[in-house]
């Protein structure tokens, strides 16, 4: 209890210091990367969110659309974007 | 082994819906599409044959047999009606 209070007090007393900016950068970067990847997975045509109205989301991918991050040896006109749940 | 008239060798063409190595869903989709096509247009409708060729190229024979027996028994959970 005392240690938690002491730790809390000491974070709020040093949050503005320049020395801990790398911590913010690293943790912020990691959280950003993780959330970017999670949204990418959520929007993937294989992920089914609405079983009643959209049970087969991969059927909305047209033949000239790319779903991969880096498509090797293949030419696509555009990237697939998932419009609906 | 020289074939005088070699039959053209072909397989299922690339499908942008299934670009990755795992072609399981591609196999299933072609199987379902073939039977949907047959139910809607009749067995002699020629363009349905492309689905037949695709799923025979993509699917393991054991799966095709299992699905066929399920379908004949009316137990296949896939929807073969449009």
From TrEMBL, chain A:
Keywords: Membrane, Transmembrane, Transmembrane helix. The chain crosses the membrane at residues 20-38. InterPro entries: B12D. It comes from the Eukaryota. It holds the Pfam family B12D. This is NADH-ubiquinone reductase complex 1 MLRQ subunit. It comes from Hesseltinella vesiculosa.
From TrEMBL, chain B:
Its main location: mitochondrion. It comes from the Eukaryota. InterPro entries: COX6B-like, CX6/COA6-like_sf, Cyt_c_oxidase_su6B. Disulfide bonds join 27-59, 37-48. It is found in: Mitochondrion. GO terms for cellular component: mitochondrion; respiratory chain complex IV. Keywords: Disulfide bond, Mitochondrion. The keyword Mitochondrion applies. Belongs to the cytochrome c oxidase subunit 6B family. Component of the cytochrome c oxidase, the last enzyme in the mitochondrial electron transport chain which drives oxidative phosphorylation. This is Cytochrome c oxidase subunit.
């Amino acid at each position: 209890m005392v240690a938690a209070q002491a730790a809390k007090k000491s974070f709020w007393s040093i949050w503005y210091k320049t020395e801990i900016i790398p911590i913010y950068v690293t943790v912020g970067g990691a959280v950003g990367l993780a959330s970017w990847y999670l949204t990418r997975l959520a929007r993937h045509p294989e992920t089914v969110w609405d079983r009643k109205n959209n049970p087969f989301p991969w059927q909305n991918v047209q033949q000239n659309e790319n779903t991969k991050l880096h498509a090797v040896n293949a030419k696509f006109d555009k990237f697939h974007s998932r419009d609906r749940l | 082994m020289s074939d005088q008239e070699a039959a053209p060798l072909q397989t299922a063409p690339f499908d942008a819906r299934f670009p990755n190595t795992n072609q399981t869903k591609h196999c299933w989709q072609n199987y379902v599409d073939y039977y949907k096509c047959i139910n809607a247009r009749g067995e002699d409708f020629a363009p349905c044959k492309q689905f037949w060729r695709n799923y025979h190229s993509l699917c393991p024979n054991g799966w095709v047999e299992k699905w066929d027996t399920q379908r004949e028994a009316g137990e296949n959970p896939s929807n073969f009606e449009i």
